[in-house]
Amino acid sequence: MFLTITTFVMCLFSLAMLGNLQTACKEIPHLEKEIAAGNFKPLRNWLKEKIHQVGSLHPNGDELMKAVTGSPLDPSVFLNYLRAKYTALYKL
């Protein structure tokens, strides 16, 4: 049971991160290049402003996600990420 709950929580976290990263990429010029260069400061600053400072003002993660990205948690974002990653990795 613990493994199932842990896996579920990690999937939710991954969904939230993907949604947040998609939004951050739109709002922060050259974010992908910054991360590739090992510079996480622009992302950290964005997360601090958009997530960490206001997260407790929302009743739940879904509402926070709506406030930040404009839409609730969407499992298709994570599923699309997994499909793209593993299709390329395993040449499916």
Explain what the structure shows.
With 92 residues, the protein is mainly alpha-helical. 75% of the residues lie in helices and 0% in strands. Helix 1 crosses helix 5 (75-90). The N and C termini lie far apart (31 Å). The relative contact order is 0.14. The model is unreliable at 1-9 (pLDDT under 50).
Features:
92 residues, mainly alpha, 0% strand, flat, disordered N terminus
Low-confidence stretches: 1-9
Instruction: Provide the domain count.
Output: 1
Q: Percent of residues in helical segments? A: over 70%
Query: What is the arithmetic mean of pLDDT?
Result: 77
Q: How far apart lie the N and C ends?
A: 31 Å
**What is the overall silhouette?**
flat
Element layout with pairings:
Elements (H helix, E strand, L loop, with lengths): L1 H26 L3 H6 L4 H12 L8 H9 L5 H16 L2
Helix pairs in contact: 1-4, 1-5
Write a compact overview of the structure shown:
The chain has one domain. Helices cover 75% and strands 0% of the residues.
